[in-house]
Amino acid sequence: MKKGLLLLVFLIIVGCAKDEDFIQIDPVQEVPESLEIFDLIGIKLESAIVHDRVAMNVKLETSGYYRVKIRHGLNNELISQERIEAKEGDNILKVYVSSLDKSGYLIQLTDDDHNLLGAESFVVQ
Amino acid sequence: MKKFLTFLVSVLLTLSTYGQDPSEINYSPVNDVSKVGDTLIMKFQYFKKDGNSLTLGQFDFEYNNKLLSYISHESQAPTGASFARNNWTGYKFNPKSNTDEDDMDVQYNWWRNEAGNSSYSTSSDWSVERITVQSSSAYPSDGEFVKYKFKIKDKFGSNYSDYNNIIKVNWANYQESDGTQIQTIKNPSSQSLSGIQGGNAGAVTINLFSKLLDNNVSDGTDYSYVIKNGAGETVSSGDFDASAQASVSGLENDVQYNISVSISDLPEYLGEVVTVSDLALVFAEAIGAGSGPSGNSTTFDYYIQDIIADIVGGDDGVNFQDSYEILAYLQGVTTGNTNYITKAGTVHEYSGIKETYGAYSNNSVTFANTFTAIDSDQSSKTINVAHGLRGDVNFSHSYEPSVSSGEKSTSSQATSQSFRVSMAPGAKYNETETANLDLVSEIVDGKVHFSINSQVEDMIGSQFNIEYNTNVLTLENVIFDTGNEMTNFSNIIEEGKVRVGSFDQNFTQVVKTGTPYKLVFTPNEEIQNTSGLITFRVKEGVKADGTQIKFNIQ
């Protein structure tokens, strides 16, 4: 009986205790070695010579809205632009190139106000 | 006294002997020659002086075998006379130094008695001919020894710049029947030819001009040329190199050729040639002028615009039929009319010599395309060719004429309607402005939104040619928010290419600022982002006064 009362008291105490917040941890995103960026911010493609599509890492200090721009490698003319909502750290994304002419290009990472954060060149073959 | 008289007679005889005019060996062309390939006929003849009786005539001459090619010879010796010809190729005569080269008996004696093996030296450019004629009776004065036929060769590649001194008599041996040497001179000293035309023109350089090249839309490799002769036969054809040049060989000097240049292989950018800016120009001309080349009022700067804007044809000038045809083309509407709009898969083009391209004379626009290479004028071997496309009224992909006669008069422009009121009379119409624009794609609720965000005011027309990856995206909708009275258009040019824009044909309504155009796509696969899936090519606007706006995408 005494044991039963102790168990009941314990359950009541536990039941009245304040709930702890659950800490949700993002699943760890595997960053392939070819996409590793050692700086805090940057953009990197898996390959500089690209067919069809290529993996891209966008690494950020803070989450928020950013832009990925593709410019022509000769005249720097902007030919494609996307706005992404990205998280802090590595963001493994893709660049689709099958609608680009075979040529050289520059891919840029900017913040939402067009301030340049990183760039890399690539070639579509 | 007797001795004195004998001395006097002796002196007189001596003076008489030395005072005789020498005989001559003459050589001259029989026929007129004017161009490479002609046959030159040369005669060599005796010219008697002061009573000498020639029975042996022998002479030696040389000709430049790089400029003349021996064909044949024909003895002109009288019946009963003996004739002989010898020849050696690759030799040249060395005249006796410090003597008159025209003195033929002196040179003969030099060769025969003094020079030894120094009289001739090897020279691959020269050939030596020797003629011997012996007669039992005195040779008639002016009697010919021989006629030679030579073919005139092209001096191209010969290392000779002209046809001077190509035949020279080296020496002559004129003798009387008793062996007495007859004093002889030659006439002329050497034989030259002038005014020889034709021949290989060597390398002729063709330079191509178009704004399409200036703006790096493409390089010269998309163009090809054809050169024809007067008979219409193709003598040369080929492609331009990346720098828009072609080096042509096989043409002849002094021959008139015509050249045409065309775009080959129908490149992708043909679909970007005719845009809303061209449409505005054509509409304005139809509204304000309604004039053809002979009209009194116009919004155009050049007469050639009357031709390239007349896309329906019929030579009836530029009118609403042309403007509506272009509008229909931009809207993707098939009218059923035949038109000459340059577009994807179809090219209508002009070419001509750059310096006269689009000239205007006798109420017509001309595209002169003939040229003639002249050997003495190196500049004639560089041919500048201009190229243009029909429908490209603002010359975005064409050569803008530079010939003064091709420009419309300031007075005719000044009388035009309000389309040009903000511009100085005579000012060129194709001035452009730039404006910032934001074209961006993003994923919204599982769809891909491509937004064209504009803060540009005063646009009465705009156009965007957009390409997208059809493997990943399907175009679901185009949302217009341009204002209530604009004529909007969106049409799929071909798979993965869509043309979106607006135009107010009254030139009064303007495209609303904000997000006038939004394209909504459905992904065909799971995607996390859209980089590279949507690209933009043509992106331009036009103001009410016709000024083209080029957008600067940040």
Tell me what the structure shows.
The complex is a heterodimer of chains A (125) and B (554). Chain A is mostly beta strands and 125 residues long. Helix content of chain A is 12%, strand content 46%. Chain A has one domain: Sandwich (Immunoglobulin-like), CATH 2.60.40. Chain B folds into 3 domains: 176 residues, Immunoglobulin-like, CATH 2.60.40.680; 217 residues, no CATH class; 122 residues, Immunoglobulin-like. Chain B is 12% helix and 41% strand. In chain B, the strands form 6 sheets. In chain B, strands 25-28-23-22-30-29-24-27-26 form a 9-stranded mixed beta sheet. In chain B, helix 4 runs antiparallel to helix 6. The longest helix of chain B has 17 residues. About 6% of the residues of chain B have low confidence. Classes of the chains: A mainly beta (125), B mainly beta (554). At the A-B interface, strand 4, strand 5 and strand 6 of A face strand 22 and strand 29 of B.
In short:
The complex is a heterodimer of chains A (125) and B (554). Helix content of chain A is 12%, strand content 46%. Chain A has 125 residues and is mainly beta.
The major beta sheet of chain B can be summarized as: 9 strands, mixed
Give the overall form of chain B: rod-shaped
As laid out across the biggest beta sheet of chain A, the strand order is 2-8-7-4-5
Q: Which stretches of chain A of 5+ consecutive residues score pLDDT under 50?
A: 20-25
The rounded Rg of chain B comes to 40 Å
Strand order of the largest sheet of chain B: 25-28-23-22-30-29-24-27-26
Mean pLDDT of chain B: 88
Oligomeric organization of the protein chains: heterodimer
Total beta-strand segments of chain A? 8
**Structural class assignment of chain A:** mainly beta
Provide a count of the helices of chain A: 1
Cα-to-Cα separation, first versus last residue of chain B: 125 Å
Q: Most extensive interface, residues per chain? A: A-B, 26 and 24 residues
Classify the beta-strand content of chain A into a percent band.
Answer: over 45%
Strand percent estimate of chain B:
35-45%
CATH fold annotation of chain A: Immunoglobulin-like
What's the number of domains of chain A? 1
Helical content class of chain B = 10-25%
Mean pLDDT of chain A: 84
